[in-house]
Write a structure and sequence with these properties.
The protein has about 280 residues and is an alpha/beta fold. The chain is built from 8 helices and 10 strands. The protein has a 3-stranded parallel β-sheet with strand order 1-2-3. Bound molecules: glutamic acid.
């Protein structure tokens, strides 16, 4: 782990006004699903007399582009969405995420993992019925968890790059009490407490090999740093909230309220996505 070690403490003071955020990844243009989510955030922030923040989730340095970020801002302005400046770019905050990651490693709650997607597939192929996480990836079979400190150090000294994973069993052992979140739903009608099920994610990836964070760690770190009170996002991230609540509890971060909204589907009933070539808003 390179990158700086100083963690700017999140502002833990209760903000006076609700803070919402729209957090696209600038690896393509916005589609109708994004427009729906952005407009819902904008409407809810205005209705609550709160603030809307815009966050570019650009940790994937190979796929995210500055011209997509600019186009996203242009499209949001065209939609009439207004946000408070400055826009937060996750790629500006790798030092902050790296310091959080180091903290988890030093607490023995995360470990370096030298596996590739292929080696994980091969390891689980021999185990029929091996579980997958809610995103459909095989749960981690534990290969690198068994490495000793000396073996880890020698892999790193040999120049092998490590991703980092949560040691889910160790984490669940240190957390006490039930973990849940307040789900307000899309229409605010029926608030309910949802039990988080972080164990479904197994030894979840919290840092990729190329950057000292993963989507889950960066989202949790930023929602805390930006004092976000209300997360409004698609139902496709419902299960991810269980893992993100676990990270919040581990890191002492406050829990926002959540509203997971329905997804815009295409003619085939599939959610719109850049990878399925959903037509862009523009
Ligand atoms: N960056 C994520 C996406 O574009 C959204 C993350 C979130 O809202 O928590 O799907």
């Amino acid at each position: 782990m390179k990158n700086g070690t100083s963690v700017a403490e999140p502002n833990r003071m209760q903000p006076v006004h609700p803070v919402f955020r729209f957090a696209p990844s600038p690896n393509g243009y916005l589609h109708l699903g994004h427009a729906y989510s952005a407009l819902l955030n904008d409407t809810m922030a205005r209705g609550a007399g709160g603030q809307l923040l815009l966050r570019m989730e650009d940790i994937d340095r190979a796929r995210c582009r500055e011209d997509y970020s600019a186009a996203i801002e242009e499209d949001l302005r065209w939609l009439g969405v207004e946000w408070a400046v400055p826009v937060r770019r996750q790629s500006d905050h790798f030092g902050y995420y790296g310091a959080i990651l180091e903290g988890l490693v030093s607490r023995d709650l995360a470990f370096p993992c030298f596996c590739t997607r292929g080696s994980i597939q091969a390891a689980v192929a021999a185990r029929p019925g091996w579980p997958s996480d809610p995103d459909g990836a095989p749960c981690y079979p534990g290969t690198c968890k068994a490495l000793s400190r000396a073996e880890r150090a020698s892999q790193i000294a040999a120049g092998r790059r490590a991703a980092y994973r949560l040691d889910m069993a160790a984490v669940l052992a240190v957390l006490r009490g039930p973990l849940d979140w307040l789900e307000l739903g899309e229409s605010n009608g029926h608030p309910r407490l949802v039990a988080a099920e972080p164990a479904l994610w197994g030894d979840a990836l919290i840092a990729r090999k190329d950057v000292p964070t993963s989507y889950h760690l960066a989202v949790v770190a930023d929602d805390a740093a930006q004092a976000v009170t209300d997360v409004v996002r698609g139902l496709d991230l419902f299960a991810a909230t269980g893992l993100q609540r676990l990270l919040q509890a581990l890191l002492g971060f406050p829990a926002p309220r959540y509203r997971h909204h329905r997804l815009i589907l295409d003619e085939a009933g599939q959610k719109l996505s850049k990878s399925r070539q959903a037509p862009s808003l523009r």
